Amino acid sequence: MDQLVTQSVGQFASMMRGTRVTAAAVALMVAGGLLPHALPAQNGAAGAASASPLDTNRLAASRDPLRGNTNSLSALGSSARGQQEAFERNHRLGLRFYNGGADASCEVPLGRICYWNNNGDVPPPAERADAKLEREQLLDLLGRAQAADPKDDWVSGMRVRYAVEGGFADVALEAARACGGTEWWCQALRGLALHNLNQHVASSQAFDRALAAMPTEQRCAWSDITMWLDPVQHEPYKALGCDGWQARNERVFRLAQPLWMLPGNDVRNELFARRTLSRVHSLGRIPYDLQWGDDLLESQVRYGWPTAWSVQNGGVADPRPPQVIGHEPTPSYDFMPTVEAIENPLSAQADDWDPKRKKARMRYSTRYANGYGKLPYQFARFRRGDTTLLAGGYRLMRELEMGRAPYTAGLTLDRLDASPARTVTKDSAGANGALLVPFLAPTIASLEVLAPVGKRAARVRTVVQPLPADTRLSDYLLLQRGDASPTPSLERNAGQAYGSLEIEGGTQIGIYWEMYRQATPTSPLQVSLRATRLGASFMQKFGASIGLSKALTPVSIRYNDNGRPDGGAGRSLTLNFPSVPPGDYQLTLMVSGAGVTDSTTQTIKVRPKR
């Protein structure tokens, strides 16, 4: 779980003789009667000059239309508000101690709180059984209160919140659908509940309806993605203004979408789900027991809402009271691309997406996959008239821990313009293979594999260029074995693609390529295939050139191609790649004839045998 812990509150520091006091500790001391007043408002509306901070907070709260009019609440609605206060108070005081993350540093300070990424730490302690029971009792009361008054926005929001928090996804959706109050609020709650159920298209539609029904100022605030952007982008983004954000947001959401092969856009839904649940949290107590403010809002918009809570201290020698820690779901990832990829998407490369980036502007833990890996792949291009056919090969290595089959594989090409994206998916896909998609212009290719059983995903995303119209030799595609038939085809061999450019020494592999020029017995073409170790010294290369070292040139094949009986373009052969030292080898295919030579080269990584 990612961690969010409350930080020091300066106004009480002098009372503790220089000891750092956390805001959560202050809240606990208030509950114990050690301090005379609650914390002042962080973002409360201004009250009368003589009003205390507590009075100002209550005045601001009373003006919040989602809280409801205290003079017109149903008896059950009023009771639910009191029970929610009691539940959160008991929940906080009964939190269990957490033994992980004691050495964690503050990765992102946010006002009164501190965030750090805890993907590799121990899980939080299990919630107490009595807290689960009390939450279910509160949910039961909220259900009866909503039935008594479906227009009570506070009740609807709290019922969805605690259903999500308790793991009752169907109850959350039922509560959202039963909401009969403010239109935008009910639609946002539906979007949240549907997103929680991985119903991405329906969730997007609900959030669209919510945004359309919102007051303009609020819609702009909810659509602002500044918190997710690199600071160098903040000023240009703000300069676009609310009306100019939509196109930029669509680009960012698309580039940040974890899996393009899935319908809808769950990362966009996640933003609005965070906005919605943060709005619910602002209406009542949360375990931190802090007055709602911009720091809590930013933490949830950037990193999500906690799904577990604990307390922690620094040990017996630490004089500080226990600190409350919120644990967001893990593992979570930074799905945002680099600034360069956002500004020039058709120049993006695979390294522009780094899900494990440090000090991320956002992190997101998808509900359909609890782990993401870097997918071993190979892209190879083939001519089809004026169109290029892209073969996206993938290979599920043991290190990915994808779990058992079935797998779903997908290849999507998207230019991020008015032209529609092209997607091909394969259910019950094997652990390796290739998917084929045609394209005409430079485009972003996203090759993805999802393991529903293991709840793991792997992907690679980069720009591919079409072949020139006068191309005479395609790229080559590595296969598990060569096609011995006289008429090999890409479509037939795609299913047994090797899937990456990383092999073991001593492996037998196949190669498929296409030649777009005629070869006949009377006018054959000369074909050569040669592997050369990269990074070798001059003397090593010289020794290889005079036959003293086969390790530097482990593959060297030459033969005449007399053409296919049917005149087709496809070619295939089987290659025994010998046992050689691990490293990178340049594998070059060369075709010559009539004074014209064409070649295609890729770098093969040879790893040690296991």
Summarize the structure.
This protein is an alpha+beta fold. The protein contains 15 helices and 21 strands.
Considering the chains and any ligands shown, give keywords for the structure.
5-stranded antiparallel sheet, alpha+beta, Immunoglobulin-like, elongated, 610 residues
Care to describe what's here?
The chain has 610 residues and is α+β, with helices and mostly antiparallel strands. The chain folds into three domains: 38-108 and 126-292, no CATH class; 369-466, Sandwich (Immunoglobulin-like), CATH 2.60.40.10; 472-610, Immunoglobulin-like (Sandwich), CATH 2.60.40. 31% of the residues lie in helices and 24% in strands. It contains 15 helices and 21 strands. The protein has helices at 23-31, 53-62, 75-93, 129-148, 153-166, 169-178, 183-196, 200-213, 216-223, 231-256, 266-281, 294-303, 339-343, 490-493, 538-545; strands at 2-6, 108-110, 113-116, 308-312, 323-328, 372-374, 377-384, 387-395, 407-414, 422-429, 432-439, 443-451, 456-464, 477-479, 502-504, 507-514, 525-533, 555-561, 570-577, 583-593, 596-607. It has a five-stranded antiparallel sheet, with helices on one face. Strands 6-13-12-9-10 form a five-stranded mixed sheet, with no helix packed on it. Strands 15-21-20-17-18 form a five-stranded mixed sheet, with no helix packed on it. Strand 20 (583-593) and strand 21 form a beta hairpin. Helix 8 (200-213) crosses helix 11. The chain is elongated. The two termini are 33 Å apart. Mean pLDDT is 87; it is low at 7-61.
